[in-house]
């Protein structure tokens, strides 16, 4: 029986996958490099420590030079980032039905706290797991296993809402059911192991979450 829903943050509650990709697009353009769609899909759902070494080798640029440009651009774009209100409404409905709500993100604690407060939903979360809490990031199962441990629940009692291949891989490796809500940059990721794949939370019937 599902007792909690664990939400990813980026690409699920907030359209920051787009901001993440766009900020790297700007940085690489400074060096005369136009990222292709495969590059952008590789960036989506992954931390820079994972995707940048590969892209830097491919295009012969340095990690440090790209990050000097990308970080401030990300912060600038994030100020006006769009929210996924259909997903937020789903979260609120789940909470109103007595389900426990948690968050497992590879982003940092400070920005996550600010974002949840801005959305007015911080108090709905029983548990929030951020980058600082983990020794390993998605696609490793640690973020989701740790979140289940904090909730004092078994993995099979948790349902994950994700948007990317690495996030799905993390959730399934943790032994959890996972529904994927894809976006422009993750739609071609491998979602073959997902329990359900949709384009928007509005495409989900609430009862479907527990089948």
**Count of discrete structural domains:** 2
The dominant shape is globular
Largest sheet: 6 strands, parallel
CATH H-tier superfamily of the largest domain = HAD superfamily/HAD-like
Which structural class matches the secondary elements? alpha/beta
The proportion of residues in beta strands is 5-15%
| Backbone CA Rg | 17 Å
Strand order of the main beta sheet, please? 3-2-1-4-5-6
Mean pLDDT: 95
Instruction: Please state the second-level CATH architecture of the largest domain.
Output: 3-Layer(aba) Sandwich
Tally of alpha and pi helices:
8
CATH topology of the largest domain: Rossmann fold
What percent of residues adopt helix (DSSP H or I)? 40-55%
Written as H for each helix and E for each strand, in order along the chain, the element string is: EHHHHHEHEHEHEE
Describe the structure.
43% of the residues lie in helices and 13% in strands. The chain is an alpha/beta fold. It has a six-stranded parallel beta sheet. The longest helix is centred in the middle third of the chain and has 16 residues, at 63-78. The model has no long low-confidence stretch (mean pLDDT 95).
């Amino acid at each position: 029986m599902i007792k909690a829903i664990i939400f990813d943050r980026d690409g699920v509650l907030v359209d920051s996958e787009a901001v993440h990709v766009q900020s790297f697009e700007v940085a690489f353009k400074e060096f005369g490099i136009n990222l292709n769609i495969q590059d952008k899909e590789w960036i989506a759902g992954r931390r820079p420590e994972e995707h940048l070494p590969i892209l830097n080798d491919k295009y012969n640029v340095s990690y440090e030079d790209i990050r000097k440009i990308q970080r401030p651009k990300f912060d600038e774009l994030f100020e006006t980032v769009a929210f996924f209100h259909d997903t937020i409404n789903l979260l609120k409905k789940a909470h109103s039905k007595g389900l426990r709500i948690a968050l497992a993100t590879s982003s940092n604690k400070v920005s996550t706290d600010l974002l949840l407060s801005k959305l007015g939903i911080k108090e709905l979360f029983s548990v929030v797991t951020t980058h600082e809490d983990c020794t390993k990031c998605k696609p490793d199962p640690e973020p989701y296993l740790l979140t289940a441990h904090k909730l004092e629940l078994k993995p099979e009692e948790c349902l994950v809402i994700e948007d990317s291949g690495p996030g799905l891989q993390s959730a399934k490796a943790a032994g959890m059911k996972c529904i994927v809500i894809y976006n422009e940059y993750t739609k071609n990721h491998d979602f073959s192991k997902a329990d359900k794949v949709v384009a928007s939370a509005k495409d989900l019937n609430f009862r479907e979450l527990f089948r």
